[in-house]
Write a structure and sequence with these properties.
Layout (H helix, E strand, L loop, with lengths): L11 H50 L11 E13 L2 E13 L4 E7 L4 E5 L7 E6 L14 E7 L6 E5 L7
Antiparallel strand pairs: 1-2, 1-5, 2-3, 2-4, 4-6, 6-7
Amino acid sequence: MTNYSRSTGFTLLELLIVMVIIGLAAGVGVANFRDFGRRQEIDNYARTLNGELRTVHADASGGKRVAGCTGTFQGYAIDFAAAATGGGAKSTAYTISALCATASAVVKSVTLPSNIFLVINRVPSGGTVRLLFKPLELGTDVSPANNLTLIVSSDQVSQTKTISVSASGEIQ
């Protein structure tokens, strides 16, 4: 009787197939994780912008002045540095200012992250789109018939987040 010993283990071909499968799964996982990170970046920035708009609205409604703002308080302006696009504007930076009759004061200047931009449904005038929150619950400079829409977007993912400001100052 012949005794054949059978070796145990895997062949080189089996090991290569397993390694290719693991490599493909890792590649898909990394791509999905990067896409998830980019979507989260848009979500986070939209929340940040929404919070800033709400703070500016509350400060304007309450008549809160900042140092350097003298004369009659006229409200808070957000000036989006913008380039015209088809029927609207695209912005990558904005400045928040307290407006007063004699002297106004810049409260904050913001430059968006390099891969994020805002699409605005207003045509810029002189390179800016202005949103004015008026004092004492007087609303905004937005037309009652056409809310101001800010779309937070990115060149890297198709997801967007929309923020809308009404004439009364309601932010959605």
